[in-house]
Predict the structure of AMP-binding enzyme.
Amino acid sequence: MVSGKNLGHRLLVTLIDQYAVTEPASVWGVIPSDERDLSKGFEDITYGNFANSINLAANWLQDHLPPQNPAAKLKKKLLLPSPFASTSAQAHLIEASQCRVYLHGGPPSTDILEVLSANSTIRFMQIPPLSDLLWQSTASEFPYNMTWNHAKDHPWLIFHTSGTTGIPKLVTYTHSMTSSFDAAELMPDASEETMNRHFEHRRWYTPLPSLHFVGMTVSLQFPVFLRSVVVIGPVTPGPTQPHVAKGVLEHSKAQGALLPPALIDGLCEDAEGVQCLRNLDYVYFAGAPLTRRLAEKLIGYVAVKPAMGSTEAGAYFIRTIDQDDWQYYSFRPGMGMELQHAADNMYEAVFVRNPQVERWQQVFEVYPDIHEFRTKDLFARHPTKPDLWKYVGRTDDMVPFSHGENLYVADIEAEMTSSHPAISAVQVGGQGRPKPFLLVEWKDHLAPHGKDKETAVAHLLEQANQKCSDLVKLTPDLVLFMGSDKPLVRTVKGTISRRESEKLYDEEIDRLYHR
């Protein structure tokens, strides 16, 4: 268990400065020595390096930002827009957050120029290269003298939701919200084995960037509060590909990884990737369910655990349970979460405001005027262990049709994806239409050709329709195959963005219904 003064009331910013003075050689994180050749190993970034680079950045920003323009040390808010969001979504986020300066580590790309063109008041600024910030000469100290009570409610980072089913929403994190893992050490059951015990004092890798709250948690909260070391992979133009993740795991001495299931799937396509995962102490999966087929390749070699959270509510703090129940969650009482009946055997996770546990209910910092927050996350109760819950999907996964019938599509999509090794992803839709459509995306190197595609999908349709009423059965005439040049749209977590994917194929889907 983490020990120290003022647990739950410590600021990330001041702790980094403290470590830089008291233990400057302690390692915060590691980065590739050569991003083009990961076999050359990884370099340490010490707290001395880290604090110095922060001071360099703070001094540079102070010198270059307009003085009247509303990065923690400058007491300014930092918006972290996902480059995977559409340009219209990014423009919306900039406008909604009243962002006035766009910082970028290079000249503006075509997409950035398109985003900026929607807002005449924003200014583009190219920041110094990361190598200059990390390894340049010693910076002038840029002190941050705020106490917990003065700073805890100050806004710092602006994240946004993934926008899986609509326009992404802004979520502003205060300093208090970025210390949630420190506060979790004060929960009544903190002496029990919890996921914090798995995260502390180990090297952890996640491909999720720091613009996502999971990436921020692994890169800031894990090292600073739990004294882990963050493994940072190379910069990639899109979501991290399996061969890159494999290189990171092979050469970084990582001991744990927090990965989206789609990446675990990619790593498990060959023996080397499987072995990289088996060499770890822990594999946590997040963002979507992990299929049994994948879990069975790992269990017995590495501890496989589920992680969960949301941008608004932060991390869901869970107890550790037997490996046999690897796909189930046991939520800690300090979260104030209730599982409320939604439909059939499905229950929705709902945060209910409770003054006794409010320190661990960050969602009510985001939405101070509500009494309960419905997460839209659906769970099924364990058949014999009533405190264990299996994630089954989202309330957003219920598709309503024109005749009034509904179809819960998450199970169908998961079963189809796991049933055929050549399928990368599927999406079932059809809201407001008489029947559902099916979008199928193939793995390039495994995709069948011609009629073989239709034959493969026909079997999957037959299986899926066994669980569907006649009004919502899937039919071959409403199936659309994705081309490699136009894949389904992903969120930063690697999950399918329903709204954006359907919008991308809007014309083709329309033709299916009118041919």
About this structure: The longest strand covers residues 372-381. The chain is about 30% helix and 20% strand.
